[in-house]
Amino acid sequence: MSENIIITEKLAKSFGNQWALYDINLKVKKDITTGLVGPNGAGKTTLFSLLCGFLKPTKGSVKILGHNPDDAQLRSRISILPQDASFLKTISVSKQLAMLAELQGFSKKQAKSEAARVLKMVNLSSSANKTADQLSHGMLKRIAIAQAFIGSPELILLDEPTAGLDPSTTDNIKSVIRQLSTKTTIIITSHNLEVIEDLCKEIIILKEGRLHSLEKISDLTARTKALTFRLEEDPPADIKTIFSTMDIVTDVKAGKAGQHRLVVYFQSDEKEQIAEIKILTCLANAGINYREMIRGERLQESVADRLEG
Fold first, then answer.
1. Which one of 112, 132, 219, 269 has the minimum C-beta count within 10 Å?
2. Residues 13, 55: contact at Cβ < 8 Å?
3. Entry pTM
């Protein structure tokens, strides 16, 4: 039995004379959550659509569980959550989920039980009899995720599952996905790299229609000598000046406004622990407080560096 759930070979897709994807060779492992990222125009939507069977390749091949994406044998074995998933406003969400279960081959009685099961998975059993217009945007996202788990599929494809959500609701959705990821293989596309870092073990990076890399996130974030801080507030404007007197500090990067993030890169012949103590001392002397420290880069900085290179 192959350890890979998806295999692509020289996969390519063109629209007219324009190649959206070219020469994509991938092996995506089973039983882990994998992220799919890249800048706008990198080919993420095209690759996602090829995996879902919405598009057919111009060249090459894609196999999911050993089958073409549109193969009838994959029915109920894979599930797709598009970014714009919606529900009818005139029928309760439990009835809609039951209808979707029936389309997968469940009997009426089984479909009703299945709808109740997936609603419980996302902690929305109390909303079973409500209609879509009675639920918040975040609750509808959770209902959509519940729909994706009907029938316990072996592979779930989630397109921007946290798009448009506030931070609190995003955390709730991440908690649901993290819990459910122990039961199946998940692929997530997202522009939010913090979501990818929190949920995924490996990451597919696309650039200009080609595969830039497929890497373990732990390798990607830990290979650089850096300390990443989540501060109490955004770093001061003169943060580079604060560290300019330290020979061991090679660069300092502040996050976007509101992120409260600071990355300090260093190079030292001393033990890393000694360098870290010096950096922490510099922060303390400047009156800069932090809530969290991570050794290595956050994924956002690592991906940005690679795509710029």
1. 269
2. yes
3. 0.74
* CB neighbourhood size of 90 (10 A): 9
**What are the CA-CA distances from residue 280 to residues 51, 157, 247, 274, 290 (Å)?**
46, 41, 15, 10, 10
CATH number, domain 223-308: 3.30.70.100
**Start and end residues for every CATH 3.30.70.100 domain found in the chain:** 223-308
User: Where do the CATH 3.40.50.300 domains begin and end in the chain?
Assistant: 4-219
CA distance 87 to 91: 9
State how far the Cα of 261 lies from the Cα of 301, in Å rounded to an integer.
Answer: 11
Name the CATH superfamily for 4-219: P-loop containing nucleotide triphosphate hydrolases (3.40.50.300)
pLDDT in tens, 13-68: 999 999 999 999 999 999 999 999 988 888 998 998 999 888 999 999 999 999 99
pLDDT for the residue 197: 84
